[in-house]
Amino acid sequence: MTSPFIAPAAKVFTEAHLPGGDGRTACGIECAEADLWMPVELRPGDRVHQACLAPELFTQEQGALL
In the 3-class helix/strand/coil scheme, how is the chain assigned residue by residue? Predict the structure, then answer.
């Protein structure tokens, strides 16, 4: 079973994201090839991006700023 969480391997891990389809995360961030997005297993204390968990609470502009 594949992890439902993803993170860019080319950047320091700060928060996991949920894949949303069409090459973007659930919060609307583009999953660029240069960022090397990959599945991650969460460990205790790891954070999940809040806009991915509840995208209906965030506008696209707000999501882009996070």
Answer: CCCCEEEECCCCCCCEECEEECCEECCCCECCHHHCEEEECCCCCCCECHHHHCHHHCCHHHHHHC
